[in-house]
# Entry
Amino acid sequence: MQQRHIPRHVAIIMDGNGRWAKQRNQLRAVGHRAGLKAVRKIVSHAAELGVKVLTLYAFSSENWKRPETEVSALMSLFIYALNREIKSLAKNNIQLHIIGDISKFSHQLQNMIINAEKLTQNNTGLVLNIAANYGGRWDIVQSAKKVALQVLQGDITVDDITEERLSLGICAHDLPEVDLVIRTGGEYRISNFLLWQIAYSEFYFTDVLWPDFNRTLFEEAINTFNARERRFGSVNVEGSLC
# Structure
């Protein structure tokens, strides 16, 4: 697979952990732990392939509505993952970012996130974004508030509000736009994920549950991406874009 065909930014909605566990008569928490193993494999393979940015949807702002026991298990798993994986990320030159409203997390978890990001901030390899307590609508609202404050302070006028200015307040605005969105688990929806950033992304859906998603399936998604013609709103006339 040629380097130039590798999408720069891949975003994944990791769906199906709970159903994976249910199929095995296990607690949903068991599925989430199995999902973490899949994360390790895909992060490693993305780095090997030359993907520049990988964004994983770990915990949405709507996931707080889940049963308290499951939310508690997810928070514990998050803490476990940061403790266990951060040294490996640093060793493998991976830069970690947590995108989302981390103020809702415990002080312990917030401090762990801050320390993990500091430890990897100078790494130059794969950028790994973990979307935690994240929602696409929240993301856009936060940016709109920043722009509104600039107007109120007299720094800009309403006429100065453009897509480019609004995009500066969006999470990961300094990274390449998302080329490919993968969703596992057989669902065909976005679930409030990166609404601004995926305006021109290609989508790949699979029935495979996230814990079973592997390197072969990841490359299959990339091969499908390679076979598509990306026109970004234009049309192809005799082989040229116009």
Remarks:
- The two ends are 28 Å apart (CA to CA).
- The chain has seven helices and eight strands.
- The chain has a mean pLDDT of 93.
- The first helix runs from residue 17 to 23.
